[in-house]
C-alpha cells in the first residue's frame, strides 16, 4: 500500500504563506473591472502592488487610492489593511472563536509565532482582547475624524473617517482624500492629534497595552509606583518611543525651521505641530503633511533613521523595532565598558535576546543594501530618493520622495518584494526556508579566538 504524500508546514512557513495568499487573493480582486473607478481594469502590476502595500501596511502606491479605485476597490483595500495590521492568523483565529470552534495546539502555536509570545497559555483571551481593543480604538478614531470630515465632505466623510482610522491605526498611511496625503490638514490640530494617537496606539504593541491597563488598575492602591512594576519590554517600548518622538520632533523643527518649502512660513505652533507629525509618521505610518521631497537632507537622514527603527514589537508597526534597537545599543555599550552582561532598568538582558537583535539588524541591512542596489540599477533617480524608497518599503512606512509612481515594472517588483520581506520579517523568512531539522551536536568544534573590530 502506497503511503500518502503529505506536506507539513511549520508555523513560520504557514504565516508567510498566509500573507502571500492574501496578497494574491487581494490582487485578483483589485484587478477586476469593478474595482476600478472608471470600470476599466487597472494593469495587474498595479493591482499586485496595491494589494501588497495594503497587506504589508506600507502605504506606497503607484496609483492614487482615492481616484483610481471604486468604492468596491476601496473596501477591498481597507479589508486588506485590516487583515495586514492584525495579521491573517489573528483574523482566522477570531473567526474560529466567533464560530465556537476549538483552538487546537497548532493554532495556539501559530498565534504564539505570529505575535512572538513566550507562552501558549491564554491565547483565546489574548486574541479576543486584541480584536476588541483594535476595533474600539479604530471606532473612537473614526468618530473623532468625523468631526472634521463630515462637515467638509458630507456623508462621504463617514467613509473617509473610517478608512483613515483603520489606515492610521494599522500604520498603513493610505487615504481616500486626495493624491497629496494629509497636506491640506497640516494646520488642523484635530486631524494631526487623532492621526498621531492612532499611529502611536497601533505601533506601541498589544503587550504594552495590557501591561499599562494592569498598572492603571493599581494606580489608586500604589500611586505612580505602579508603573515601576511594568515589564522590561513595556519600559523599553514606552521610554524609547517617547525619546524617539521628541528627538525626531526637535530634529525636524531645527532642520526645517527656515525651509519655505516645508514649514518655514508656518506659525510657531504649526511648525511644532508639523514637526511632531513628521516625527511620528516616520515610525512606519506613512501619512504626510509636508512634501517629503522638499525636506532638507538633514531632515531626510533623520527620517531614514526613524523609519529604520520603526515601532514596537507585537503591534501594527514595522521597522527593526524599538526594543531590538535598544537591546543592540545597550549591548554595544556594555561591551565597550567590558561588562559581562547588558543591563537596563536594573534588569539583565538575556543573551538570546541580544543574539536575535544582532540577527534582525544584520538581515535588515542585507535586505536594504540589496534592494537599494537593485533599485538604483533599474532607475536613474537620485541616490537619497532611492534609499528613502527602499527604507520606506523595508520598514513598511509608506513615505516617498515622489518616486513610487515613476518606477518602471522592474522597480515595482523590487519594491513589492521588499515590502513583503519587511512585513514578514527577515528572520522569519530564513527560518521558513530552512527545511533541515534541528539536531543536537554531541561533539562540538574547538573554540579559537579571533580579532574583532
Characterization of this structure:
The chain has 453 residues and is mainly α. It has one domain. The protein contains 19 helices and two strands. It has helices spanning 11-30, 44-55, 65-68, 71-86, 88-98, 105-115, 123-153, 156-169, 189-204, 206-217, 219-222, 232-256, 268-281, 297-309, 322-336, 351-378, 383-394, 409-424, 426-433; strands at 343-344, 347-348. It has a two-stranded antiparallel sheet with strand order 1-2. Helix 1 packs across helix 2 (44-55). The radius of gyration is 22 Å and the shape is globular.
Radius of gyration over all CA atoms, rounded: 22 Å
* Count of helix runs: 19
Total beta strands: 2
Helix content: 55-70%
Q: Cα distance, first to last residue?
A: 61 Å
- Domain count, please report it: 1
User: What oligomeric state do these chains adopt?
Assistant: single chain
Q: Which descriptor suits the 3D outline?
A: globular
**Unreliable residue stretches:** none
In what range is the share of β-strand residues?
Answer: under 5%
Structural class: mainly alpha
Q: Averaging pLDDT over every residue, what do you get?
A: 86
Amino acid at each position: 500500500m502506497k503511503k500518502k504524500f503529505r506536506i507539513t508546514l511549520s508555523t513560520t512557513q504557514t504565516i508567510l504563506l498566509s500573507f502571500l495568499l492574501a496578497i494574491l487573493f487581494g490582487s485578483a480582486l483589485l484587478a477586476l473591472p469593478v474595482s476600478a473607478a472608471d470600470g476599466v481594469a487597472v494593469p495587474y502590476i498595479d493591482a499586485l502592488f496595491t494589494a501588497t502595500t495594503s497587506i504589508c501596511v506600507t502605504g506606497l502606491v503607484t496609483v492614487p487610492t482615492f481616484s483610481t479605485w471604486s468604492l468596491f476597490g476601496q473596501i477591498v483595500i481597507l479589508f486588506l489593511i485590516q487583515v495586514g495590521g492584525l495579521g491573517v492568523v489573528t483574523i482566522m483565529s477570531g473567526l474560529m472563536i466567533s464560530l465556537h470552534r476549538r483552538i487546537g495546539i497548532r493554532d495556539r502555536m501559530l498565534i504564539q509565532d505570529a505575535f512572538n509570545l513566550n507562552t501558549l497559555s491564554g491565547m483565546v483571551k489574548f486574541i479576543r482582547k486584541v480584536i476588541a481593543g483594535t476595533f474600539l480604538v479604530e471606532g473612537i478614531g473614526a468618530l473623532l475624524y468625523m468631526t472634521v470630515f463630515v462637515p467638509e465632505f458630507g456623508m462621504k466623510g463617514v467613509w473617509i473617517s473610517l478608512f483613515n482610522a483603520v489606515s492610521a491605526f494599522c500604520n498603513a498611511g493610505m487615504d481616500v482624500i486626495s493624491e497629496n496625503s494629509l497636506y491640506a490638514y497640516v494646520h488642523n490640530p484635530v486631524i494631526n492629534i487623532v492621526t498621531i494617537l492612532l499611529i502611536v496606539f497601533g505601533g506601541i504593541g498589544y503587550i504594552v497595552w495590557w501591561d499599562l491597563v494592569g498598572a492603571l488598575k493599581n494606580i489608586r492602591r500604589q500611586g505612580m509606583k505602579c508603573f515601576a512594576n511594568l515589564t522590561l519590554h513595556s519600559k523599553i517600548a514606552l521610554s524609547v518611543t517617547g525619546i524617539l518622538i521628541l528627538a525626531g520632533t526637535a530634529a525636524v523643527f531645527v532642520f526645517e525651521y527656515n525651509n519655505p518649502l516645508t514649514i518655514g512660513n508656518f506659525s510657531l505652533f504649526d511648525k511644532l505641530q508639523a514637526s511632531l507629525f513628521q516625527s511620528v509618521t516616520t515610525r512606519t505610518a506613512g501619512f504626510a503633511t509636508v512634501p517629503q521631497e522638499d525636506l532638507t537632507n538633514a531632515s531626510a537622514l533623520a527620517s531614514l533613521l526613524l523609519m529604520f527603527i520603526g515601532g514596537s514589537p507585537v503591534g501594527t508597526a514595522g521597522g527593526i523595532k524599538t526594543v531590538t534597537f535598544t537591546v543592540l545599543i545597550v549591548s554595544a555599550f556594555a561591551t565597550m565598558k567590558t561588562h559581562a552582561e547588558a543591563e537596563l532598568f536594573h534588569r539583565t538582558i538575556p543573551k538570546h535576546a541580544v543574539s536575535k537583535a544582532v540577527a534582525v539588524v544584520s538581515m535588515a541591512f542585507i535586505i536594504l543594501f540589496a534592494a537599494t542596489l537593485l533599485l538604483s540599477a533599474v532607475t536613474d533617480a537620485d541616490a537619497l530618493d532611492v534609499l528613502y524608497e527602499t527604507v520606506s518599503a523595508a520598514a513598511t512606512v509608506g513615505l516617498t520622495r515622489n518616486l513610487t509612481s515613476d518606477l518602471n515594472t522592474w522597480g515595482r517588483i523590487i519594491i513589492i518584494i521588499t515590502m513583503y520581506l519587511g512585513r514578514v520579517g527577515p528572520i522569519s523568512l530564513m527560518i521558513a526556508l530552512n527545511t533541515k531539522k534541528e539536531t543536537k551536536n554531541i561533539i562540538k568544534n574547538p573554540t579559537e579566538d579571533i580579532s574583532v573590530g
